[in-house]
Write the structure tokens for this entry.
Amino acid sequence: MLRGKRVGNKELQELVTNLKGIGDKTGKLFEKCGVKTIGNLLEYYPRGYDHFKAPVRACDLRSGEISAVKLTIIGRVTLRRVRNLSIIAFEAADATGKIRIAYFNSPYLMSSLKSGTTHIFRGLVQKKGSFLEMNQPKMYLDEEYAALLGTLQPRYPLVKGLSNNTVKKAMSAAFVNAGHFDEFVPQDILDRLKLISYSEAVYGIHFPSNEEDLENARRRLAYNEFLMFVLQLRLLKASQEEVESSYKMIETSDTVRLLEKLPYNLTGAQQRAWEDIKADLTGKNVMNRLIQGDVGSGKTVLALLALLMTASNGYQGALMAPTEVLAAQHYENFTSMIKKYGITALKPVLLTGSLSAKDKKEAQRQIREGEVNCIIGTNALIQAKVEYKNLALVVTDEQHRFGVRQRESLAGKGLNTHVLAMSATPIPRTLAIILYGDLHISIIDELPMGRLPIKNCVVGTDYRPKAYKFIADQVAAGHQAYVICPMVEEGELDGVENVTDYSETLRQNLPASVRVEMLHGKMKPDKKDKIMDAFARKDIDVLVSTTVIEVGINVPNATVMMIENSERFGLSQLHQLRGRVGRGDAQSYCIFLNTSESEEAKERLSTMNKTNDGFVIAEEDLKQRGPGDLFGVRQSGELNFRVGDIYHDSDLVKESAMDADRILNEDPELSSTQYSVLKSLLATKSANSVDFATL
Ligand code: ADP
Ligand code: MG
């Protein structure tokens, strides 16, 4: 139950450093995680939970799983020194088997680790040769473990210097100070859907007393996200519906000429989508269209055509991408096509947050005075400072990454701007219609001709040497490769590869001539751009990256995608990652490295082997996921709800859409007092703009 006393939401605005035990130093670390106020802290949800299950027998331990096991120390306990490291090592057994255990730099443990003593050890089990081992397991007495048994302990996303315990303590303190969130959903809705209160849900997501508790909290918070999302969409739609277009366009010869010059013909599906777009732009009403097409289906050229048509009609258009890397790539790509195909009508400019103040000013001037007519960029595009001369079209790429409010505010820059959203997320059509209302949808369900299907393999860690050899061969043949690791640097998760160390490993294991670089979300944006540019220009052969490259990057010369710890990713996310290869004429390959031994992981990954179809994978993903899997690295990013999952919670999506419609029917302006909290929430937060890409 909720411990917090009832206080006004004012408490939520207080700084975390006002909490007992949180000094300036910890405050700085929290700030790195985007947590400034107590309200931010309470919404800093766990990425997962440690489930303290009953101890298993030694013979039931499996590599790759976190388990507790009650063992007796057998033989000698040794303390060695290797350079700066002190290592305690011993074997421990029960009647069914034995394992090796090691502790590093903890010599003080020697006194409790006596041969013949029995403890409960809990940690990640790993296979080393024919042995199972646990490094640094937590140790418990029977009664200590009994107190934890069955509980779910939160695991938070961390940064260097910030421990899980610190976050947990801060969270407890925060609930004492400010555990109350004003309810904003009418009671009859909560009753009908059996949802718990907002305050209870926030408490439950941090400190669930059991799985049922967690699921109740999760459902309530998921409902919040969906309701807010749908409400925002409906409000956006209401402001745009059947609005007569102020930018009626005519077909121009520029797009026809571009299509003639392209080295390929549009696929049938691209052709149909292009017809839809043209009809919208030349029609009576404002365009509001979603282009949905699997990775590699060729959505970018449609954006280019739409932007060119807009420019030829004398207007400005903008292309918004979720990351600077992707925005920069679109810019480069457009610039080179403009040159190659002589598209003189299109004058692009890149506007991102990392431009120098001077360049930004200049770009803003060009936009204001209409010297440029194709503005490509990230969120910086929608900052209040940017004034457009005559913005008529906004294209959003990978639009599920954007908050509705961001889109709304961008659309608000021009009068009744046409909106074209492009997404690779395979949302079933029925759900898409609920989520997006009557946003018109064009589906590209056909891949360009001549693409060879990607060859896949799911392999264990012993395959690594072969994989490195394979990558070296592909590089020797003039191709490039991606290697994906879940983490940026050595972090809180044992046995999870990180980009920093892995690029070193690769340099050592690949021929010296192979150029290896790394890329991750914590890099400065201009550094990221440089690396991505270099990769696109073939100045880098192997790019070791986190999932920042998941979205939209196009380097057709890359033919290998190797994904470390692939069991940690959602299937849909793996599919997006795989979509970075197979974009050219050459045969491409995807290597899914499974570092766990769990049967379930193996089976889940085998789906990737069986199909290259995003819709099939999305469905499998839905079937295979359990309620505990919805957080953290396995978060598949669909629409980027933080807690909700449109597949798993499709019932809540439908219910929330119904409720949103009912609420707006009753009170279109949300002006009655019962909706005042809801209204202020809608005004202050974007329900759907959290970006997991920077993991
Ligand atoms: P996505 O839909 O994932 O954004 P892109 O637009 O990046 O895909 O296109 C992937 C690749 O396919 C690009 O290199 C693009 O030039 C190429 N392409 C697009 N349309 C066609 C087509 N009709 N025929 C052949 N290649 C195409
Ligand atoms: Mg794309």
Notes: The radius of gyration is 27 Å. The mean pLDDT is 84. Residues 299-300, 397, 552 surround magnesium ion (ligand 2) (CB under 6 Å). Residues 383 and 497 are 37 Å apart (CA to CA).
